[in-house]
Amino acid sequence: MTETGYIIIIAAFVVICVLVGLAGRAFKTVSKRKVLIVEVDGKHYRTLEPGYRRIKPFGRKIVGKVNTLVQTHKFITPKIPTLDEENIQLDVVLRFKVFDATKYYYEINNNPASVKNAVARMFKDVISYIPHDDVYPRMQRVLEQVLTKTQDIVQEWGVNIVEIKVIGKKRKAVSVTADDPAKQPAPAYKPVPATEPPQVHHEVATPAKVESRPVSLEPVAEVTPEESVDAVPTEESYFDGRLLQLIGWRLITFFVSLITLGLALPWAVCSMYRWEMKHMVINGKRLRFDGKAMSLFWTWIKWILLSIITIGIYGLWIPIKLKKWVTKHTHFAEETEE
Q: What does the pLDDT look like over 235-288, one tens digit per residue?
């Protein structure tokens, strides 16, 4: 084959890779458990609902993912002074659901701690007017008041509280539930232009009403996932990679390895695993692969030499060695960022 023929083949391959990459960026599969927030030039452009969605590949940026399933959070309130100046702490289980993902993302930065803090603050406001010995006997009424008053606040953040429960080791759990959040209408959200300051409503502050702002409170004690209700994770495991992306990466890694006679195989392996882990979520935590191609390259050379020395016998262990190396360099994205 002439030199011109090789150039045409390489050019055609590059064009195919570019087209496959653009096709992968132009379509997005959104799972049923979340919605995606899309911005253009730092401003809200649209919210992608669950399903197979089309999005322009240039100028559009996915800036956030909002969980639309019912979220369950357990926390311990700070010490609450009662009417007779005694302190009390409550073990609270909070369940809520986001019905307007756009408002939830922009009003409270997609942060469930704001909802927990609002509930904790309302417990403090309600219980401060009750004697210590009357708190648990009147807990059902307390929960109803907390739910009603907090609901008014969080609905402005695009959130509906489903249930609030108070549990205890020696006391029977008491809970109160709200209407199905799915039946609540989702008001249209109009983001404020970047050139204008956020609108602030100047009203007389009351304990039960907060304007559309995250509540600033004293810290609420967090609970580890193992201490969650019934020890069942509230997040799911899933893979959100797309078929066109997978085909594109397979083609790229195959041709690059073929052209370089296998020398670029470590780069291809690292690129492939980096893409897979980027789109893999385990128990609500996204994975991240931090393996370096140069590190794998020298290890790969060692494996090849050992395989040659042992007349191919060592090659039987290479897949296991590679799997161990990949696992060693795979972490949860949150832990890696910290």
A: 567 787 778 778 887 887 788 777 877 777 788 888 888 888 888 888 767 888
Query: Which letter does DSSP use for residue 218 in this model?
Result: S
| Cα-based distances in Å from 123 to 4, 30, 208, 216, 310 | 77, 37, 11, 15, 71
pTM over 0.90: no
Q: Domain check: are 226 and 246 in the same one?
A: no
d(CA 145, CA 131): 16
Q: According to DSSP H, which parts of 128-192 are helical?
A: 139-154
Provide the domain count of the chain.
3
Distance CA(76)–CA(90), nearest Å, equals 6
Please give the Cα distance from 89 to 159 (Å, whole number): 25
Nearest to 319 by CA among 298, 300, 305: 300
Residues in the chain: 338
User: Rg (Cα) of the chain, in Å, rounded?
Assistant: 27
| Phi-psi region at 113: left, alpha or beta (left = phi > 0; alpha = psi -120 to 50) | alpha
Residues 151, 36 share a domain: no
- Residues 75, 222: one domain? yes
CA 241 to chain centre: 15
217, 98: one domain: yes
User: Are 212 and 102 spatial neighbours (Cβ–Cβ below 8 Å)?
Assistant: no
Ranges of beta strands (E only) in the chain are: 27-30, 34-40, 43-48, 51-54, 61-67, 71-76, 80-81, 87-88, 91-98, 159-167, 174-177, 238-239, 280-282, 285-289, 330-332
- Three-state DSSP state, 212: coil
How does DSSP classify residue 92? E
Side chain identity, residue 137: P
Give me the domain span that covers residue 13.
Answer: 1-62
Considering the domain architecture, whether residues 217 and 241 belong to the same structural domain is answered as no
Does any domain span residue 196?
no
Question: Between 44 and 27, whose confidence is greater?
Answer: 44
Per-residue pLDDT reduced to its tens digit, 93-129: 999 999 888 888 888 888 888 999 999 999 999 998 8
